[in-house]
Amino acid sequence: MRDIYMAVPLDVSLGSRLNQMIAMAATRGANVFTTSITFLLLLISVALAKDHAHGRSYLVGGSSASIEDSTAATNTILVSPNGVFACGFYKVATNAFTFSIWFSSSTGKTVAWTANRDVAVNGSGWLAFQDRNLALLDHNGTAVWSTRTTGTPASRAMLLDTGNLVVVDPEERQLWMSFNSPSDTLLPSQPMTWEMKLVSASARGLFYSGLYSLYFDSDNQLKLIYNGPEVSSIYWPEPFNSAWENGRTIYNSSRYAVLQQTGQFISSDKFNFNASDLGDKVMRRLTLDYDGNLRLYSLNATSGHWSVSWMAFRRVCDIHGLCGKNSLCKYIQPIGATDAGTNIYKQLEQRMKLGCSCLEGFEVIDASNWSKGCRRKENKTANWDKRRSQKANITSNQDFSFRKVAKTDFYGYDFDYVEHVPIHQCRHMCLDNADCQAFAYRPGKGQCYAKVYLFNGRSFPNLHNDLYLKVPKGVYSSSELASTVTHVCKVHEKEANTSSQMFKDGSSKFGYFISSALTLLFIEVTLIITGCVIVYKWDRRPEITDEGYMIISSQFRIFSYKELQKATNCFKEELGSGGSGAVYRGSLDDERKVAVKKLNDVIQGDQEFRSELSVIGRIYHMNLVRIWGFCAEKKCKLLVSEFIENGSLASVLFDYQSLSPVLQWGQRYNIALGVAKGLAYLHHECLEWIVHCDVKPENILLDKDFEPKIADFGLVKLLKRGSNAQMLSKVHGTRGYIAPEWALNLPITGKADVYSYGVVLLELVKGIRVSSWIVEGEEEVEMAVRCSTENLKEKLAGEDQSWLLDFVDHRLDGDFNFSEAIVMLKIAVSCVEEERARRPSMSHVVETLNSLVE
Question: ∠ CA(604), CA(607), CA(613), 5° rounding?
C-alpha cells in the first residue's frame, strides 16, 4: 500500500469548528479540565487547518503518489510553505502528464519547471521516493526521470518557498535541487551558471524542448543561440560586435548570473538590467519564450495575470529562425497603434505582432509551425532540381532567371560579397554558382550579396536592399516574372511572321501605321506626364527612410533648414569652429539640446552626401557623438548631433585659467580608454570601416560624467576595406597630430589615427599641448614629438620611475597611478612610431588598457 501525501482542502471553516467544540463541551458538562483540552484541540485544529490549506511541503522516503489517486482538480503533490508554488502532475494532453512546479496563484497554473518535458507519462504513472531516489515512473514501471540520488543518505523531498524542489538528508543538506536543471524559466535567487542552460518551449502552449537556448558560452558571455534542424547561429548579443561593444566582458570566468527578487538581473559578463517595476513584493520569472525572446514577467496578485517588465528584443524579427527558411518575417500591425495605460513592453508587444509569409513559388511546410519554413511548390521543385543537375553542361546560363522581391533581404549565409559592381555582374555571379539561391543588391553603393541559403528573411517598406530570387525559366507565369531581371532581346527581321495582316495589302499597312503612330503618341504623352510626377515626388521625397536604421539610430532623420534656423535662434550661439565648419548650440521642439554643424566645402553631390550620411546614421557607440540627423538643402549641408555638456577635452585639459577643477588621474585614464574604444569601433566594428583623420583633443568631447565622445568622425571619404585603401585627395588633420605617411603620400589607413591617438595620450599624461614641447632651436612640432618619444623610450626601459613625478601634469601634485602612467606612456610611444607597421591596432590598445582595469 503506497502512502500518499497531497494537499487536502479544508471542508469546515474555523468558526464552525470552534462552535462545534464549545457545544460539545457544554452538552457533556465540561469542567475546567475539559475546557482546557477543548482549547488545546482548537489550537491543533488551527495548525492542521493551516497545514491543509497550504498542503504538504515534503515527501518522505518510501512513499509515492499516483496520477490516478491524486486530487483530480489539481493533481498536486507538494505545496511550498508560503503557498506560492505547487508541484505535481501537470496535464499536457488528454492522458499525458509531466511532473512540474507551477505558480499556484497564476491563471492557468504557469509552469516554472518540468522534470520530463520531452517524455510525458500516461494517467497510470506515479512518483515514487524509493531507495533514496525520487523518480517518475511510467505505467510499466520504467523510470522516465529521477534525481539519481541512490546511494546517498537522502531522506525526503521538499518544495521550498523559492520554488526550488530539493532532496535532502536528515541534516537538511541538499543532495539534489531543481534549480540546477532549469527548463525554460529562471526564478528569483536561482543562479545561472556555466553548467546550466534555459531551453525554450517548442511552441505556444507546448512544453517540449524548442530551438532556442540561453547559456554561458566558452568565452564567458551569456548568449542566446538558435539550434535549428539545418543551421545554428548565435543571435544575442549582436554576433557581429565585439564583447566590449555589446557592453560585455570576457575576462570574468566565474560565469554566474542571478535574478534578484527586486527585479534586478546581474551577470558576471556585465549584462545587467532592471525590471520596469522594481520592488521586492512582486513575484517574477525570467522565461526564454518559444519565439526565442527572453522576457521578464511580473505577476499581478489580484488578477493572476502576467505582464512583461523587460525583454531582450523589442523587434522580434531580429530573432533567428522564427519564420524558417524561404520565408519572410513581417510586422502585421502598423507601428504606432497602442493601448493607452499599458507599460512600454506591453505597447511593444502590441506594435510588433509577428507574421510570416512564404516567398512566391514556395509553400509552407507546416502551417502550425512556421519555424520549419517553406519549400518550393511541387510542380516547381522538380524543374529546379533538373536545371541544377544540368548546370554543369550550361554555358549560356539561360535556363535561369531572377524574380525581384523589392525591399527585402535575407541576412547571413552569403557565399560571396562584393561592392561597387553593376547589377548584371552580381546577376552573373549567382548564375555561375549552382548553389546560389538568390542575390541581394543595394543600388547606389553597388553592394552584392550572393546567397546559398535563404534564412532570416525580412521585408520592410523602406529597406535599401532588393532581393533577386533565382528561378528556372518557364516555371513561373508571366505575372510572377513581371519584375524579373532579364536581358533585352532584339527581334530580327527573319523572325517576323509573314502571314500577319501587316503584309497582306497596302490599306492594311496604312491603317496599321496610323494606329501604331497614335499608340506611340499616347505612350509618349503618358511617359511625359509620369516623368513629371516622378520628378515632382523625387524632389519632395524623404531622402532616407530606411526603417532598419531608423530603429537602430533612434530618431535619425532629415531636418529642414528652417527647423534648424529656429532651433539655433538663427545660429546665434557658436560653440566653436574648425576646418570642417562652425558649430552652434540649439534646442529642438522636443526639448533635446543639440549641436548643429555647418559643413564647409562639401564637394560631394547630394546623392553621395546622403549615401555617406546613411552610413554615419547607423553608427552608435557610447564613445562616439550621436548623430541625430542632417539637412541637405541646395548648398546648405548641416549635421545635427547630441549636445555634450562639458565641451572638448582641449578646453578642459589645457585651459589653465579656467575655474573648473583639474582632470583627475582616474578621469584621464578613463578618457584614454574610452577614446580607444571609440576608435577601435570605427576601425574594426562598424558597418563601414572609418578613418577619422583628425583625432585631437578638440574633437574629443566630455559629457556630464566626463565620459569621452569622439566628434567629427566620418566627415572624410570612407576608405575601402583591407590593405589597398584609397588615398585621400588632400591632407586632413592638425599639425602635431598628423602621421608621417601624410607627407610621404602613402595610402592612409587606421594607423594614421593610431599615431594621432598616441599624441593625445602624451598630452593627457603631461597636461600640456604638444606644440608647447618645442625646445629652442627646433622649428617643427613633429620633431619635438620625435625627440620626446626617443627620450621616453630610454626612461621607460630603466627601472627608476622617479622621473614620472616631473613628467606627469604638475597640477596633480603627484596623485596618480604609477603603473597606469607607465602603461599609457608605453602605448603612446608605440603609437607614434615612424614606421606605421610597428604601431599597434586600436583593438590591441583597448585590450592593454582594459587589462589594468580588470
Answer: 80
Q: Kindly report the pTM of this predicted structure.
A: 0.51
Per residue in 80-122, pLDDT (tens digit) is: 999 999 999 998 876 788 999 999 989 888 999 999 988 888 8
Q: How much of the chain exceeds pLDDT 90, in percent?
A: 31
Dihedral sign from CA coordinates of 240, 246, 249, 255? negative
Count of CA atoms in the C-beta half-sphere (13 A) of 633: 11
Instruction: Give 299-357 pLDDT, tens digit per residue.
Output: 998 889 999 999 998 878 888 888 888 988 877 654 444 444 455 555 555 555 667 88
All three cell numbers of 510, joined, read 496604312
Q: How far apart are CA 757 and CA 844, in angstroms?
A: 13
Cα(54)–Cα(79) distance, rounded to whole angstroms?
6
Residue 438, phi then psi, degrees to nearest 5:
-170, 170
Q: Known binder of ligand: residue 598?
A: yes
Read off the C-alpha cell for 487.
Answer: 536581358
Pairing between β-strand 414-418 and β-strand 447-451 as defined by DSSP bridges: antiparallel
CA pair distance 327, 111, nearest whole angstrom: 32
Return the exposure string of 772-786: e unless at least 16 CB atoms fall within 10 Å of the residue's CB, then b.
ebbeeeeeebbebbe
Which position among 289, 466, 694, 712 bears the catalytic label? 694
* Fold classified for 1-177: Agglutinin, subunit A (2.90.10)
Residue 774 pLDDT class (50, 70, 90 cuts): low
Question: By the 8 A CB rule, do 77 and 5 touch?
Answer: yes
pLDDT in tens, 112-156: 999 998 888 888 889 999 889 999 998 878 899 999 999 899 999
Q: What is the dihedral of CA 77, 79, 80, 85, to 10 degrees?
A: 100
The model's pLDDT over 426-442, given as tens digits with 9 standing for 90+, comes to: 998 898 888 898 999 88
Kindly report the average pLDDT of the chain as a whole number.
Answer: 77
Cell numbers 488545546: residue: 40
Strand partners, 411: none
Domain 362-488 in the same topology as domain 1-177:
no
Examine residue 237 and say whether the peptide bond preceding it is cis (omega within 30 degrees of 0): yes
What is the architecture of the domain spanning 547-642?
2-Layer Sandwich (3.30)
Q: Which of 148, 151, 150, 126 is nearest to 136 (CA)?
A: 126
CATH topology of domain 651-853: Transferase(Phosphotransferase); domain 1 (1.10.510)
435 is catalytic: no
